[in-house]
# Entry
Amino acid sequence: MSEGGPKNVEENSEEKDKYSGEMIGSSIYEIVGGSKEDKMEAGEYFQEGINEHSGKFFVSGDKTYQVESLECKKTGEELEMTRDILTKIEKFMKEMGGKPLKIKPEHIHFLDSEKVQAQNIPLENFFEPAHQYVAIYDSGNNLINAQAIAHEVLHFQSFASAEIGKDEQVRFRRLGFGIKVRGEEDFYFDKINEAVITELEKIFEEEYFDSVPGIQKELKNRQEFVDNFLRDHPDLPELANDVAYAFLNPNTGLVDGARYPYPKERDRLNQMIDYIYNENKDQFEERDQVLALFVGATMGGGMLDLARIIEKTYGKGSFRELGKMTKQSRQRVVDSE
# Structure
């Protein structure tokens, strides 16, 4: 077995001399490494990021872009929709036993898709942990925008920690389920992180989207597509349940459906949850208890119980191997300039 990856989950979740981000109200729950003064300075940086809503920037490729230069002002309908989703996610987090951040509409930036494409920037929605904001490109469809907000705000609400290195650079060591291993560029388990967030997004939608303003027409269109799909394909209920939105396909002139993102990653996650549950029914009364371990690791940070049941089910070293199989490279160095 090759080296690399998280060897001992306790090393990634139980370090001493932590600085708690709860003191400053940012999404960074803890900061390790460096002196007490270094931690306080880093904490203040993240606090400034969540308190200030202008002057935001991000890196794409080898270039830095100012958010305001690509931003479009939210319409009154979009502002009402955004505010409502944020309120509902706070409630959702409390239902799961979490302590939600107070995220405001000012933390959500709508990017003009034409301006983004003109700069050859990929049309990707993202949460920027270094500067504590969410950016989504305006798709022109309220339902798609609402889903993007929900997805990225759940990333915003998930567990995160940072580390101050010997070079005094601040780097993220945990982002949701993702673990950054010292000396490596990849985030281990990052594909699981995206899968869990998307599954949470679906649960959130099912519980709350029926009353979100501005998206009811799109929800009706989606339901009509799903009903027609099930009429033609009654043997594919799981696929029908994974339709995120319906749209007019310009190539065929017909109404088509799009799945929620990360389908392969979510299929792998759900297969793993099913297998763990079936192999450990002496420990779990229902499948959702296994899912709860993945959600707890993503939103609350605790991985020990999940790591132990994975090792028990799949064998010694399987947790590390899972991390290596599901890693992705991300630029996650805090640029404080």
